[in-house]
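<instruction>
Derive structure tokens from the sequence
<data>
Labelled lines for chain and fold
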Amino acid sequence: MNICDTSPVTYAVNYIGNGQTGGISPVPQTKIPGTALIISNNIGALTRIGYTFAGWNTAADGSGTNYAPGASYTADVSVTFFAKWVPIPPPLVTYTITFDSQDATITATPSSKIVTTPATTVVTLPIVPVKTGFTFAGWYTAVNGGGTAFTATTPVTASTTVYAKWVPIVLE
């Protein structure tokens, strides 16, 4: 007796949340040979803390083939799509460094500099101020040249004011 299985061949299409912290993966789909399957959108509202959903990939680590939600899948093979997650970049933080020329005859230019993360330094200092009868001796974190020196490579972690240090010119 010859028994023939007449059920059509189909392929399984599965979706994995891949580390999601909320939502649910789309239900599996059945791919019929020779016809395009529309890849599921993020209908289960998958979320992952610190990440944005960026479509689907055929490998959990994202090294496979990327597919956009709503794209056509035409291969006649079973496949598992893994949610692809892109890290959300940290918000930009801006700090202002104000250069107080301390009664200079000609003040520093510019009088302030902006540092926006991910930058961590001012990179370059302003044109030094000039004060009649004094020599400019650098920028410092306290009035009259007290505190610690501030240079172009000093790490900036907050808005602050730095002060010109002046050394009197001694005539002999």
Q: What stands out?
A: The radius of gyration is 32 Å.
